[in-house]
Design goal:
Layout (H helix, E strand, L loop, with lengths): L3 E3 L2 E3 L21 E2 L6 E4 L2 E6 L2 E10 L9 E10 L3 E8 L1 H4 L6 E10 L5 E12 L2 E10 L3 E3 L5 E9 L7 E8 L3 E15 L11 H8 L49
Antiparallel strand pairs: 1-2, 3-6, 4-5, 5-8, 6-7, 7-15, 8-14, 9-13, 9-15, 10-11, 10-12, 10-14
């Protein structure tokens, strides 16, 4: 393998990004998430988003193609309306089997963001570790970036570099917080999230869709086509003369590769 040096970034290092679906290109659920105060939803695989304030009266979070970055794929908050001290959170969790690769090392996180609130917004990047293996009900902060000002309507790369991770082998939680304040029908974008070993955030690793999908399917897996929303009608017809309770499945579904934990249907 040839490693090329381009400016201040190394390229050609496969597997350096510990984050699944860093460009949000995989979205198996298909349906957008309607923003609800203090409730997390999945606008793309492996990423959650939440809005909070006095009230959250409008807006959705969804995969979009008009974001910053090379591909344009992103998580987008669309036409969000929040009153009071509005804050938006994005969250990603890395399981212990991956997090142990960063145990007692230094790491760097980056993400590419944009916002259209009409004014500068303070963002904060926070890394936490799970207190028990793959259990994020209790976490401990590793470090945070402090407030980083992001100007209106400007593609902005945020970096949080040279973080001493300590013993993070139970799992890592990444949070991106945007203090948007009171907003009415405004948009926010985020993409190209990367957490890697090293004191410097290097060029974003671009992964094939098929590979990202396979990694995401260890956590969420559909028994019907990728482009079909789970809310659509996908059930097979029950054979004539067969009695099936309404809360039972007529078929068993098997997958050739194991999931990370026992799935809940």
């Amino acid at each position: 393998m040839t490693i090329k040096y381009k400016g201040d970034s190394f390229v050609g290092l496969p597997g350096k990004n510990k984050i699944d679906n860093g460009t949000c290109k995989v979205h198996q659920r298909v349906d957008p998430f309607t923003l609800v105060k203090d409730a997390y939803g999945f606008p793309a695989d492996r990423w959650q988003v939440m809005a909070t304030g006095t009230a959250v009266s409008a807006g959705t979070a969804d995969q979009a193609t008009d974001g910053p970055g090379l591909s344009g794929k992103c998580i987008k908050l669309i036409q969000a309306s929040i009153t009071g001290t509005g804050i938006v959170f994005w969250r990603h969790r890395i399981e212990s089997r991956v997090a142990e690769d960063l145990k007692n090392l230094v790491a760097s996180f980056q993400c590419l963001v944009k916002q259209s609130t009409g004014a500068s917004v303070n963002y904060t990047l926070t890394l936490r570790k799970a207190n028990a293996t793959d259990n994020f009900s209790a976490v401990t902060e590793i470090a945070n970036s402090g407030q980083i000002s992001v100007p209106d309507a400007t593609d902005t790369m945020l970096k949080f570099e040279n973080v001493s991770m300590g013993d993070c082998s139970n799992g890592i939680e990444i949070e991106v917080k945007a203090e948007v304040g009171a907003i009415t029908l405004k948009d926010l974008w985020i993409t190209e999230m990367q957490l890697e070993e090293g004191s410097v955030a290097t060029a974003f690793e671009r992964v094939r869709f098929e590979d990202e999908l396979e990694r995401c399917m260890q956590c969420v897996r559909k028994s019907h086509p990728y482009s079909v929303a789970p809310t659509a009608a996908n059930s097979k017809a029950v054979p004539a003369g067969t009695a099936v309770a309404t809360n039972k499945l007529a078929d068993c579904v098997f997958w050739e590769k194991p999931m990370r934990t026992t799935p809940t249907i």
